[in-house]
């Protein structure tokens, strides 16, 4: 595994990084899963800032502060809902990662942590989603020397295995 990419287990809201990524819904007004956890941990000021953003289309990303989180910022991105893979889902998921890395680059962030975007309620197959995540992280790291660390947060044993398998594939 390249040392600038690390798989970690547990709760993304505990990470003290420049930005954690939120797998948000397009309203940016909160929801379940990782989105709910981030809003609970950040406090109501996060929702207040999100309200000013007027939503976010699928595949795009928006930046807010981190408020009560140990992370300084939150990058909210809206992943695609999985409908079988022939409705642009891979391109949209890739676009989520690219837009998050573009914000990280513009802001000069050195550490960013991602949940497995779209793999919960949105049902994107875990291994396929992890492949895209790993490919885009490697591309971003190659062109952004300021970015020192990308964390992939595995919230289950299955997710951890999927990230590890995706790494093996990308490296071989
Ligand atoms: P989506 O709607 O994009 O599928 P979900 O929040 O339902 O978003 O799930 C995205 C991924 O985040 C899932 O793999 C889920 O297991 C994981 N997840 C849920 N809560 C947390 C958390 N607190 N920290 C990290 N990952 C989480």
From TrEMBL:
- Kindly list the residue ranges recorded as spanning the membrane: none
The protein's matches in InterPro entries, at most eight in alphabetical order, are given as: Macro_dom, Macro_dom-like
PROSITE patterns listed in its UniProt record: MACRO
Q: Which Gene3D superfamilies match?
A: Leucine Aminopeptidase, subunit E, domain 1
Q: Which GO terms describe its molecular function?
A: O-acetyl-ADP-ribose deacetylase activity
The record places domain Macro at: 1-171
Quote the SMART domains the UniProt record gives: A1pp
Supply the Pfam families for this chain: Macro
Q: What is this protein called?
A: RNase III inhibitor
Instruction: State the species of origin.
Output: Geomonas silvestris
Specify the taxonomic lineage: Bacteria, Pseudomonadati, Thermodesulfobacteriota, Desulfuromonadia, Geobacterales
């Amino acid at each position: 595994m390249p040392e600038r990419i690390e798989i970690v287990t547990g709760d993304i809201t505990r990470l003290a990084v420049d930005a954690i990524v939120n797998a948000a819904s397009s309203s940016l007004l909160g929801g379940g899963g990782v989105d709910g956890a981030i809003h609970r941990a950040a406090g109501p000021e996060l929702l207040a800032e999100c309200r000013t953003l007027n939503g976010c289309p699928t595949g795009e990303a928006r930046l807010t502060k981190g408020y009560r989180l140990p992370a300084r910022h939150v990058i909210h991105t809206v992943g695609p809902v999985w409908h079988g893979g022939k409705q642009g889902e891979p391109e949209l998921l890739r676009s989520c990662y690219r837009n998050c890395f573009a914000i990280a680059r513009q802001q000069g962030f050195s550490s960013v942590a991602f949940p497995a975007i779209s793999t919960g309620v949105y049902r994107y197959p875990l291994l396929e989603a992890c492949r895209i995540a790993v490919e885009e992280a490697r591309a971003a790291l190659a062109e952004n020397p300021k970015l020192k660390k990308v964390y992939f947060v595995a919230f289950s044993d299955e997710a951890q295995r999927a990230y590890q398998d995706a790494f093996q594939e990308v490296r071989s």
